[in-house]
Design the sequence.
C-alpha cells in the first residue's frame, strides 16, 4: 500500500498534465513540413481514409499506423501496428508505420502524457488501438454490407477484404473507403476473441528493420532543413557553472562560424557546418563562474551519504511490524553496506536537436521521449503559442530515459531564435557524457536477522540518495517537498514480495547537486542489486541454497516464484560447474513485469569476471511480440551488465571525470554472454518490456561471483583487483 | 576542390583535406547512414570501406581517401540485397538501429577476407563496434547466417 | 599480475630458453669486428642502455609475445581487444589502419598515427614484452626472429629510418617518449655493434 505522502510518478504526471492546462495542446498544424521537402519523410502520410488519429488507409489497401510513441529500439513501431493489423484484419505485408505529431490524440494513458517511458507503450495503447481498429473494421463491414444490401452481421473481415460469408462476395477495403467514411464509428465495437489473434502473441518481423540496414532510417542527427546552420555548445566544465566572460575573437575568425551566442549555462557556436562549429568552439575562450559544485568530488559525495545515513532518520517508505523487536529475537544478524554509483545513459546517438524558430511559430525535429513536453518547452523558450509549435519525431538512437530531458531541446530553440535561422545542435560524445542526468548514486545500509531455523525475522533497508523528482519534477511545474517521498529513489526496495515479519525501508534524501534522472529501470536499477544480493547473503547465513531460500519466502503461486523456478530449471540450477565458475540468481519486479535471471560466471585468478551465460525468465503478462520481448530482455542484460562490470561516473572538483567510451566502457562483442530468454505465457495485464530485464542482471552476476569465489561484491562496478586471488 | 569517389559516384568538396570523412559524407554529400557516435574511433558507428577495408570515418581525413574508392552503407548494395542486410532483417538484429550501419560495414569487410568466420573471427572484427541496445548476439547470428548464404 | 601477462611470461621464458639453446648453433651472419676491436664489456653496457628503449611502452606495446598489443603508458590490453592478424596489420574488419592514420590526431582519446601503423607479422613476432635484455639481444641477432634482417646494420637502418619507429619519439597527446632520445638510442646500438655486439649474460 502506498503511503499518503508518497509521490507516484506516473499518476502524478497524469494529474499535472491535465491540471496544468498549458501542456494540453491543440491539433498539429497541417501542411508539409520542411523535413518532408528535404527527405520525403512521411510524418503525415497521404491517405484516402483517416478514420482516427491512428489509422490511415489508402485506396490500394495499404494501411499506415500512426504511432505517437517514440521508437528507441524497443520495437514500438512494430508492436503497436500489430495490434491494429490484428483487430483491423489486414495483411502484415500491407502495414507500415508513421511517426505521429505531438497531439493529445496520442496521450499515453499508462503514462499520463504523450510519452515513451516507464515501459508503458503496449500497456497504454493495447486497448485504445484495438478499439480504434475494431471501429474501423466495423465501418468497413457496414459499408460493404450496405452496398450489398445484406445485414452487417452476415459479413466478416479478412486480409483487407470484407466478405459476405453466404455468397463469398467480397470487396477490398480500398474500394470501401468513401462509403465507410460516412459511417459513424460504434462506441463499443466488438473486439476479436483473443484466441483468433493472428499477430498478437506471434514473433512478427519488425517494420523498422529494413530502414535500419541500409542507412535510410532518419535519426535526429540526420535532419537537414533548408538554410540550416550547425551549432555546438561550450558548457561549463563544472556542473552548474555559468558564463563569466567570453573572448570570441578567435572563434569568430574561424571560417564558417556565423554566430557566438551566450546562453548563460554555456556558449553556442553557430556555423555553416558541424566541423566549423567544432573548430570555432576549440578557439573560444570563456571564463566561468564555477559555483558551489567546484567543491564537490566523489569523496565528498560519499561522505555526505555516510553522514546523512548516520545522522538522519529519513522518511519511512514502508514499515511492517517492528525491526528493533525483530533484531532482539534474531539468532544471527547481518549488517552490510551496498553502494551503486552514478551512471551515464550513453545512448549511441549523442544528444542533438533541430529547431526552426520563426516570429510566431516554431518547427522542431529530433528524437524525443515526451513530445508534448517538447512542444510546451519550445513554446515557452521561443515565446510562441504552443499550438504553433510543430514537433517532428525522428528515430531515437537510444533513449533509456535520457531523451525525456529538455536540455538539448532548449539548446536548439535558443540558438535558432538567436540566429533567426534553423539550427541543428549536436553534442559531441564528451558533451553527452559530461552533461548527462545521471542514474543516482545510492548508499544502502542493510540489516537483517534470521531465527534459528534460518527464516528472516527482520529486514531494515536504509537508502541515502538523491531524489530524481526534485529536479525532473520541475519540468512539469512540480516541487518535491522535504517531507515527501519520491518512489523513484527506492522502488523495488520497499515492497518486497518476500515474507518478512518485521520490515522497514527508509529513504534518506541527499541533495548531492549532481543532476540525476531516469535511467533504464530507474530505482530498480539499483534496488535489485542491494536487495537481491543481501538476500543471497541471508541465504548463505542460513546455510541454504539461494534459490530454495528465496522460494521458501515467497507464495507458492506468486509470479516471482514462477520466474525463479523457470529460470532455475532452464539454467540447470544445482548442476556442477568447473572450479572458478559459479551460478547466481536474482529476481525483480518492475513496471508490472517479473524477471528472474541466472548468471554463470567464471572468475580468473587475475580477478577478471567473464559472464558466460545468462538465462532469463520473464513474465510480462500478455505479450504482443515475443521476439521483441526477447530482444528487449537480451538488450537489458547487456545494458545492465555494462554498468555492473564497468559503469561509473566519478566527480572531481565539480567536473565529470569520464569523457567518452574509452573511459566509460560499454560491453563489447567478445564479452557478450550467451543469453537465453524464456517467456511465461500469460493473459495477465500487460507488463513493461523495455526496462524490467535490467534490474536482475547485476545481482545475478554478483551472486554468481560469490558462488565462484566466496567473495561478496557490495559496491559497483565490480572491481577486478578485489577478486584477484592473493 | 577535392574529388572523392563514394559508392562509385564522384563527389567534390572544398573542405580542408584534414576534415574527417564522416562529416563530409553526412553534411556535404547527404549520406547520413554513416553515424557519429564518439569521434575518437572507439565505437565504430562511422565505419565505412576504403578500397574494401573497414575504416572509422570519424578519424579518416579526406586526404586519406583521395584516389581510393569509398563505400558507405548506402552503397553496400543498391537494394538492401547484400547477404548481410538480408540476414540482419531475418534475425531482426537492429533495435534503435543507430550503430547498425557500422556493424554491417565492419561485418562486410570481414566477410570479404574471411568468408567463413569463426566466433573468434567475429569477435575480433566486430569488437570495435559498440551497441548500447545490446544486439551483439543477433549481430553474430546474422553474420553466421549471411556467411552460410555465401555472402560477401 | 594478470593471468594473461603470466601466460605471456611463461611463453617468453620458453622462447628465451629455446633461443639460448639455439645460440650455440647460431652462426653470426656478419663480421662485426671488422673495423673495431671487440670489447664485450663495452658492448654489453651499451646494449643495456639501448634496451630500455625496446622495453619502453612506446616500443613494446606493439611487440607482445601473444597476438594482443597493449596500449598506453600503463600497457593495458588494447581497447577493442584488437589482434595482430597474419601480416601484423590486424584482422579483416579490424585492421590497424581502421583507426590509426598516417599521423597523430590531436585530442583526448584519439588514436596515435604514423605511416603504415602495424605490428610485426605473426610469422616473425619480434617480441619485446616480457623479454630479458639477454634474450632480446639474441633475438636481434637472429634473422629468423628479427624480421629477416641479415645484418645488425640493417636493423639499425630500420630503426633509424622507419617513420613508425620514429613515431616513438613523437607520440603526441601527452604519451611518454622512450627514456633515450632517438639519437642516443642509435648511438648506443652502434656502440654495441662496434664493440662486437656481445649480449648481456
Sequence:
Amino acid at each position: 500500500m502506498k503511503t499518503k505522502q508518497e509521490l507516484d510518478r506516473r499518476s502524478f504526471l497524469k494529474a499535472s498534465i491535465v491540471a496544468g492546462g498549458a501542456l494540453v495542446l491543440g491539433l498539429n498544424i497541417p501542411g508539409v513540413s520542411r523535413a518532408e521537402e528535404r527527405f520525403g519523410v512521411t510524418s503525415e502520410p497521404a491517405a484516402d481514409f483517416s478514420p482516427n488519429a491512428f489509422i490511415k488507409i489508402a485506396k490500394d489497401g495499404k494501411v499506415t499506423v500512426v504511432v505517437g510513441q517514440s521508437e528507441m529500439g524497443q520495437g514500438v513501431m512494430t508492436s503497436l501496428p500489430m495490434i491494429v493489423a490484428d483487430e483491423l484484419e489486414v495483411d502484415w505485408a500491407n502495414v507500415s508505420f508513421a511517426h505521429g505529431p505531438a497531439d493529445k490524440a496520442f496521450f499515453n494513458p499508462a503514462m499520463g502524457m504523450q510519452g515513451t517511458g516507464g515501459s508503458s507503450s503496449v500497456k497504454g495503447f493495447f486497448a485504445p488501438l484495438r478499439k480504434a481498429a475494431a471501429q474501423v473494421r466495423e465501418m468497413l463491414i457496414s459499408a460493404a454490407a450496405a452496398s450489398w444490401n445484406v445485414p452487417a452481421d452476415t459479413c466478416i473481415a479478412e486480409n483487407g477484404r470484407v466478405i459476405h460469408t453466404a455468397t463469398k462476395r467480397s470487396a477490398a477495403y480500398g474500394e470501401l473507403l468513401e462509403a465507410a467514411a460516412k459511417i459513424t464509428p460504434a462506441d463499443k465495437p466488438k473486439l476479436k476473441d483473443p484466441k483468433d489473434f493472428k499477430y498478437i502473441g506471434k514473433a512478427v518481423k519488425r517494420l523498422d528493420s529494413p530502414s535500419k540496414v541500409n542507412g535510410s532510417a532518419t535519426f535526429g542527427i540526420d535532419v537537414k532543413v533548408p538554410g540550416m546552420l550547425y551549432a555546438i555548445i561550450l558548457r561549463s566544465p563544472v556542473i552548474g557553472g555559468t558564463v563569466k566572460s567570453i573572448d570570441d575573437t578567435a572563434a569568430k575568425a574561424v571560417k564558417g562560424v556565423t554566430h557566438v551566442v551566450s546562453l548563460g549555462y554555456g556558449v553556442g557556436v553557430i556555423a555553416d557546418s558541424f566541423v566549423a562549429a567544432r573548430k570555432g568552439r576549440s578557439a573560444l575562450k570563456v571564463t566561468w563562474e564555477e559555483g558551489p559544485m567546484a567543491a564537490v568530488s566523489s569523496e565528498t559525495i560519499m561522505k555526505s551519504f555516510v553522514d546523512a545515513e548516520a545522522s538522519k532518520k529519513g522518511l519511512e517508505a514502508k514499515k511492517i511490524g517492528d525491526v528493533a523487536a525483530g533484531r532482539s529475537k534474531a539468532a544471527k544478524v547481518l549488517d552490510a553496506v551496498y553502494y551503486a554509483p552514478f551512471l551515464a545513459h550513453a545512448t549511441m546517438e549523442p544528444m542533438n536537436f533541430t529547431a526552426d524558430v520563426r516570429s510566431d511559430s516554431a518547427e522542431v525535429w529530433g528524437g524525443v521521449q515526451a513530445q508534448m513536453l517538447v512542444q510546451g518547452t519550445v513554446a515557452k523558450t521561443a515565446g510562441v503559442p504552443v499550438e504553433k509549435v510543430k514537433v517532428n519525431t525522428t528515430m531515437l538512437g537510444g533513449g533509456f530515459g535520457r531523451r525525456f530531458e529538455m536540455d538539448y531541446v532548449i539548446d536548439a530553440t535558443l540558438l535558432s531564435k538567436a540566429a533567426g535561422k534553423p539550427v541543428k545542435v549536436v553534442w559531441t560524445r564528451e558533451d553527452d557524457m559530461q552533461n548527462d542526468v545521471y542514474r543516482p548514486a545510492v548508499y544502502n545500509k542493510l540489516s537483517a536477522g534470521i531465527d534459528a531455523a534460518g527464516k528472516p525475522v527482520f529486514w531494515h533497508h536504509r537508502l541515502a540518495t538523491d531524489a530524481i523528482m526534485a529536479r525532473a519534477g520541475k519540468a512539469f511545474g512540480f516541487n518535491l517537498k522535504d517531507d515527501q517521498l519520491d518512489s523513484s529513489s527506492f522502488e523495488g526496495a520497499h515492497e518486497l514480495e518476500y515474507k518478512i515479519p518485521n520490515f522497514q525501508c527508509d529513504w534518506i534524501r541527499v541533495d548531492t547537486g549532481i543532476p540525476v534522472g531516469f535511467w533504464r529501470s530507474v530505482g530498480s536499477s539499483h534496488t535489485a542489486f542491494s536487495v537481491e544480493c543481501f538476500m543471497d547473503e541471508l541465504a548463505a547465513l542460513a546455510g541454504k541454497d539461494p534459490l530454495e531460500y528465496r522460494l521458501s519466502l515467497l507464495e507458492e503461486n506468486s509470479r516471482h516464484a514462477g520466474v525463479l523456478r523457470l529460470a532455475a530449471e532452464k539454467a540447470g540450477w544445482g548442476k556442477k560447474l568447473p572450479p572458478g565458475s559459479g551460478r547466481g540468481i536474482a529476481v525483480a519486479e518492475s513496471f508490472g513485469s517479473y524477471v528472474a535471471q541466472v548468471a554463470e560466471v567464471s572468475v580468473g585468478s587475475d580477478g577478471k569476471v567473464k559472464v558466460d551465460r545468462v538465462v532469463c525468465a520473464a513474465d510480462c503478462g500478455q505479450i504482443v511480440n515475443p521476439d521483441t520481448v526477447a530482444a528487449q530482455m537480451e538488450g537489458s542484460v547487456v545494458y545492465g551488465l555494462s554498468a555492473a562490470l564497468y559503469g561509473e561516473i566519478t566527480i572531481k572538483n565539480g567536473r565529470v571525470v569520464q569523457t567518452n567510451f574509452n573511459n566509460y566502457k560499454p560491453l563489447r562483442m567478445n564479452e557478450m554472454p550467451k543469453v537465453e530468454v524464456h517467456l511465461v505465457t500469460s493473459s495477465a495485464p500487460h507488463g513493461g518490456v523495455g526496462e524490467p530485464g535490467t534490474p536482475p542482471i547485476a545481482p545475478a552476476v554478483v551472486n554468481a561471483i560469490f558462488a565462484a569465489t566466496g567473495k561478496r561484491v557490495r559496491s559497483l562496478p565490480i572491481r577486478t583487483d578485489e577478486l584477484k586471488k592473493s | 576542390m577535392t574529388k572523392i569517389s563514394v559508392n562509385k559516384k564522384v563527389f567534390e568538396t572544398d573542405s580542408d583535406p584534414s576534415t574527417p570523412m564522416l562529416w563530409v559524407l553526412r553534411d556535404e554529400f547527404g549520406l547520413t547512414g554513416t553515424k557519429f557516435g564518439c569521434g575518437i574511433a572507439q565505437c565504430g558507428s562511422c565505419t565505412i570501406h576504403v578500397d574494401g577495408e573497414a575504416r572509422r570515418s570519424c578519424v579518416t581525413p579526406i586526404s586519406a581517401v583521395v584516389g581510393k574508392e569509398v563505400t558507405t552503407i548506402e552503397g553496400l548494395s543498391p537494394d538492401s540485397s547484400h547477404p548481410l542486410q538480408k540476414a540482419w532483417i531475418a534475425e531482426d538484429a537492429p533495435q534503435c538501429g543507430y550503430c547498425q550501419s557500422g556493424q554491417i560495414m565492419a561485418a562486410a569487410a570481414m566477410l570479404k577476407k574471411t568468408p567463413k568466420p569463426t566466433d573468434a573471427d567475429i569477435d575480433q572484427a566486430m569488437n570495435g563496434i559498440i551497441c548500447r541496445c545490446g544486439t551483439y548476439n543477433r549481430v553474430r547470428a546474422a553474420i553466421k547466417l549471411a556467411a552460410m548464404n555465401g555472402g560477401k | 599480475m594478470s593471468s594473461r601477462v603470466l601466460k605471456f611470461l611463461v611463453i617468453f621464458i620458453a622462447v628465451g630458453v629455446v633461443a639460448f639453446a639455439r645460440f650455440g648453433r647460431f652462426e653470426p651472419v656478419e663480421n662485426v669486428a671488422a673495423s673495431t676491436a671487440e670489447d664485450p664489456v663495452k658492448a654489453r653496457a651499451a646494449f643495456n642502455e639501448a634496451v630500455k628503449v625496446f622495453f619502453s611502452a612506446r616500443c613494446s606495446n606493439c611487440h607482445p609475445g601473444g597476438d594482443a598489443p597493449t596500449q598506453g603508458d600503463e600497457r593495458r590490453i588494447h581497447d577493442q581487444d584488437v589482434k595482430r592478424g597474419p601480416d601484423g596489420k590486424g584482422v579483416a574488419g579490424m585492421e590497424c589502419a581502421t583507426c590509426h592514420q598516417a599521423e597523430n590526431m590531436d585530442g583526448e582519446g584519439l588514436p596515435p598515427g604514423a605511416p603504415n601503423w602495424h605490428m610485426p607479422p605473426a610469422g616473425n613476432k619480434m617480441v619485446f614484452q616480457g623479454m630479458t635484455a639477454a634474450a632480446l639481444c639474441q633475438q636481434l641477432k637472429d634473422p629468423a626472429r628479427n624480421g629477416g634482417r641479415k645484418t645488425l646494420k640493417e636493423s639499425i637502418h630500420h630503426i633509424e629510418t622507419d617513420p613508425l619507429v620514429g613515431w616513438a619519439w613523437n607520440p603526441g597527446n601527452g604519451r611518454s617518449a622512450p627514456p633515450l632520445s632517438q639519437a642516443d638510442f642509435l648511438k648506443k646500438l652502434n656502440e654495441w655493434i662496434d664493440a662486437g655486439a656481445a649480449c648481456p649474460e
Observations:
- Helices of chain B lie at 21-28, 83-90, 100-113, 119-126, 136-148.
- DSSP finds five helices and five strands in chain B.
- Residues 100-113 of chain B form the longest helix (14 residues).
